[in-house]
Design goal:
Elements (H helix, E strand, L loop, with lengths): L1 H29 L7 H25 L6 H30 L1 H21 L4 H12 L6 H26 L8
Helix pairs in contact: 1-2, 1-3, 2-3, 2-6, 3-4, 3-6, 4-5
């Protein structure tokens, strides 16, 4: 049974990876600015959560409707890790080896959007200038920055996963 639950998490993790990678590639081909869109970011966040939840629900169904907190969290987190990790590798390859100019374009778009947002919040110009200088001084697609970003994402998704696992857990009363 445990092997089947692992299989569910891996399967949905691969589906998630394919979806996330497809969005990145489609945005690259159609309109690179989509990757800096808040709407796309929120949409992908929701998709990641949905895949994690589906993985829990399918694993729970496999166990006759019961799932421990640990099993629920494991199903969710494995799915998310596989999806986000593979998607990150695709981004690293695309923006570091295939088309580094696309990474430069995205960096400029981030600068434009950051400047606009900070101006709308009434941020002093010197703070805006510092933020822009910080963005210019780092390549968000290099391996180290991608690893840092991936680690922060996984911590964030883990916290959310703990909450979701707590909500969806259902212990078997006969097991006690």
């Amino acid at each position: 049974m445990e092997n089947s639950s692992k299989s569910i998490a891996v399967t949905y993790g691969i589906y998630l990876a394919l979806l996330l990678s497809s969005v990145t590639i489609l945005a690259y081909v159609i309109n690179l600015e989509w990757l800096t869109s808040m709407g796309v970011g929120i949409g992908l966040f929701i998709v990641i959560l949905i895949f994690g939840i589906i993985s829990i629900v399918k694993t729970k169904k496999l166990s006759q409707g019961f799932i421990s907190f640990k099993e629920a969290f494991t199903a969710y987190f494995k799915t998310v890790v596989i999806g986000v990790l593979i998607s990150s590798v695709v981004s690293i390859i695309l923006f570091n080896y295939i088309d580094p100019d696309a990474a430069d374009f995205l960096q400029e778009q981030v600068i434009i959007k950051t400047t606009k947002m900070m101006e709308n919040f009434g941020t002093p110009q010197e703070a805006i200038d510092k933020a822009i200088a910080d963005i210019r001084n780092q390549n968000q697609f290099d391996l180290l920055n991608q690893a840092k970003s991936l680690a922060m994402q996984l911590v964030f998704y883990a916290v959310i996963g703990l909450i979701i696992a707590f909500i969806l857990k259902k212990n078997d009363p006969e097991a006690n």
